[in-house]
Amino acid sequence: MKTGYNIAIDGPAGAGKSTIAKKIAKKMNFIYVDTGAMYRAMALYLLRKGIDPADADRIAEVCQEADISIEYQNGEQVVLLNGENVNAYIRTEEIGSMASCSSAVPAVREKLVELQRRLAAKADVVMDGRDIGTVVLPDADVKVYLTAGSATRAKRRYLELLEKGEKPDLAQIEQKIIDRDYQDMHREHSPLRQAEDAVLVDSSDMTIDEVVERISSLCR
Ligand code: DC
After folding, report:
1. Coil vs helix vs strand at 57
2. Does residue 40 have its Cβ closer than 6 Å to ligand 1?
3. Which atom of ligand 1 is nearest to the CA of 128?
4. Helix (H) or strand (E) holding 8
5. Which residues partner with 201 through β-bridges?
6. CA 116 to CA 69: how far, in whole Å?
7. Which atom number of ligand 1 is nearest to the Cα of residue 10?
């Protein structure tokens, strides 16, 4: 049933997946699908309902009430939660941490994986996440596992926050990255791992353009 050309990019938090995937999508005139944003929108719904991140049974129940969809406005992905554009609310540390917990619940994954597969079936997409090459699109045309050392990822995040005028703590950021990696890699369902047929790209010592060029060359 697959008709679109699919590029799958997986990797840990802060590896630069969304920056790279957006650039590749633009270059190749593909649609960029940010699956983390879908898990974040679900996390927002659960937090608004006051659900405990550790209560998997309640998460499985309450996630059924959340309708998540995406649309594109001026080329940007907009995530809709029961019809509301929630892009402005999902980029916080609190939401990221809830998303990491709630994404471990199979009922949440089933719902969102189905949406992701439907999107990839009808268009040429660059999709990023944790399980795209392993579970969502096992037949993707190109699979990349994009990573970087935790110190490098922490430093990038630190500089981003400095630029925003905040006073970040580098050691604390790195610890949070290590904790999130552990949680995403050790969950029972669809843990983060490199697919056997994925190409490993370590961006620790590469510029953004070099990574884009490397992935583009895999597509050629
Ligand atoms: O990429 P991100 O930081 O926006 O993702 C937030 C969380 O969502 C991440 O910690 C794990 C989860 N996630 C997932 O389980 N599967 C995906 N395909 C994408 C994200």
Report:
1. helix
2. yes
3. 18
4. strand 6-10
5. 146
6. 10
7. 18
